[in-house]
Design brief:
The protein has about 475 residues and is an alpha/beta fold. Helix content is about 55%, strand content about 10%. The protein is built from 20 helices and eight strands. A hairpin with a 2-residue loop joins strand 1 and strand 2. The longest helix is centred in the first third of the chain and has 21 residues. The radius of gyration is 31 Å and the shape is extended. Bound molecules: adenosine-5'-diphosphate (ADP) and magnesium ion (MG).
Length: about 475
């Protein structure tokens, strides 16, 4: 009975403490360092709290002792005290936290100490240096920024400027294939190797890390592997989703992660899915991925694709008519990698054909990439596009309703259908709710008048026509 009531009290006291703490620290710190704490017991004036590990306890003592003391004094009184209970880590055997070098940056190592084996085994190369394994072509300078990737780009820049010192640790970048995860992650690494030449940056794919772990198990050289990673200051692990169902690699990575995080070293992870959708992954690892900040790369919009295409052609010094380029970008899918393939073909053709790139060349390239387009423009396809633009249901323009926005959309569909399709006025009227051809004539006049007199309306029509031209190479 007593046990229960002290638990109850400790919860109440801790909740009050949290209210005080919340106002004194950033939301990021609050979530990272205070949310995981569990109140255990109130023993007289002493509140006992449970923290996940030793590192956590040390961190709190080092950074938040004043905040904690004040919260305890305000809730329990001037004699209030705090005691920690640490959840024992089952993986003590390779607890890196206990063998770390005295302070983060003081342990800068240019060359690997003699006795440490380099797990990146490349025949014919001397392994006494920690190589970054970065590709130099991935830089911030040639990463084109648009709405779909701006947030991720800014976070990556912040990390590159102050590695390990921002709240973005780990920086978790997720996005579908071909959207620029590897590029952005490596751009951070490349920027740091220039601005902080003494820091050891290592880029590794999850697959390769897995191989290193398997090799170390087989050759009983796990200590070497761990010691190698203790000399890394910036670690980029690409495609972390492949850690799924790899318990041993997860375990090793967990310790590398803890070690680095404790020393404020920077960890950058990429994944094809958000943290919460990672499957077959140890919970304690997943929870660490949430410690920092998650940023996502969304599919590029038309403008971003166009900007990437223009940059690429400028680089290759190839000229392609703007209309053709727009057409290609419009039809290229979401993947920037695919867009790059299309552009490479385009460049090759342009060089081969001495610059004579036409719309039909573009169509052939798209066919080659099996990008399906609707061949013939119809009233139906115009109606879909217009409804999409004004965000109204297709069935409404086909129906009887006389509500103003619907009537306006319907009239515009009639006008565009007359302009771009081979259908007769009668056919157009029939498709749009069985109206007769005089209604269609009247609609076309109305739209023409509006285009003449209403600037905003004209802009709308212009945008829709542009989309139509791009869709059907009109
Ligand atoms: P992911 O790792 O997400 O599958 P990558 O980083 O490999 O994608 O990107 C695919 C290709 O697209 C790369 O060649 C990359 O340089 C290029 N790329 C992606 N995003 C951009 C961008 N914003 N600007 C320029 N090139 C980009
Ligand atoms: Mg990648």
């Amino acid at each position: 009975m007593k046990e229960k009531s002290t638990t109850h009290h400790s919860t109440q006291v801790w909740t009050k403490c949290l209210d005080i703490i919340r106002n004194r620290v950033s939301p990021q710190s609050f979530n990272t360092w205070f949310k995981p704490i569990k109140p255990v017991e109130l023993h007289g004036d002493t509140l006992i709290i449970q923290v996940p590990n030793k590192f956590f306890y040390e961190w709190l003592e080092e950074h938040y002792i004043d905040v904690l003391r004040q919260a305890i004094h305000q809730t329990i009184g001037p004699h209030g005290k705090l005691e920690y209970r640490i959840v024992v880590d089952n993986y003590k055997r390779v607890d890196l936290a206990e063998v770390h070098s005295p302070s983060g940056d003081a342990s800068q190592v240019d060359f690997l100490p003699e006795e440490i084996k380099n797990p990146f085994i490349i025949p014919g190369i001397k392994h006494d240096r920690i190589l970054s394994h970065l590709k130099q072509r991935y830089t911030f300078d040639n990463f084109i920024v648009g709405d779909s990737n701006r947030f991720a780009y800014n976070a990556a820049k912040a990390v590159a400027n102050r590695p390990g010192k921002t709240a973005f640790n780990p920086l978790f970048i997720f996005g579908k294939v071909g959207l620029g995860k590897t590029h952005l992650a490596q751009a951070i690494g490349n920027a740091i190797t220039h601005s902080h030449p003494k820091l050891n940056v290592v880029y590794i794919t999850t697959e390769r890390l897995t191989h290193q772990v398997i090799y170390s198990i087989r050759h009983q050289s796990m200590d070497d592997l761990m010691r190698y990673y203790q000399n890394v200051h910036i670690l980029i692990v690409d495609d972390i989703q492949f850690l799924a169902r790899r318990p041993k690699t997860q375990e090793i990575f967990f310790h590398i992660f803890n070690h680095m995080h404790q020393l404020e070293r920077q960890i950058i992870l990429t994944s094809d899915r958000p943290v919460k959708e990672l499957e077959h992954m140890e919970e304690r690892l997943v929870s660490r991925f949430k410690w920092g900040v998650t940023v996502d790369l969304q599919p590029p919009d038309f403008e971003l694709k166009l900007a990437i295409a223009r940059a690429r052609l400028r680089e290759e010094q190839v000229h392609v008519p703007e209309r053709v380029l727009e057409y290609l970008c419009y039809h290229a899918g979401d993947s920037i990698r695919d867009l790059e393939g299309i552009l490479s073909t385009l460049v090759a053709r342009a060089l081969f054909l001495q610059g004579d790139i036409t719309m039909s060349t573009a169509q052939k390239i798209l066919q080659y990439y099996k990008i399906q387009r609707e061949e013939v423009i119809t009233v139906e396809s115009i109606a879909r596009l217009v409804c999409d633009h004004f965000n109204i249901p297709l069935q409404d323009v086909k129906g009887k309703t006389r509500k103003r926005p619907i009537v306006e959309a319907r009239q515009l569909i009639m006008y565009l259908s007359k302009k771009f399709t081979k259908h007769s006025l009668k056919q157009i009227g029939k498709f749009l709710g069985n109206r007769d051809h005089t209604t269609v004539i009247y609609a076309c006049r109305t739209v023409e008048d509006l285009i003449e007199t209403d600037e905003k309306y004209r802009q709308n029509v212009f945008t829709i026509e542009k989309k139509l031209r791009l869709s059907y190479s009109l």
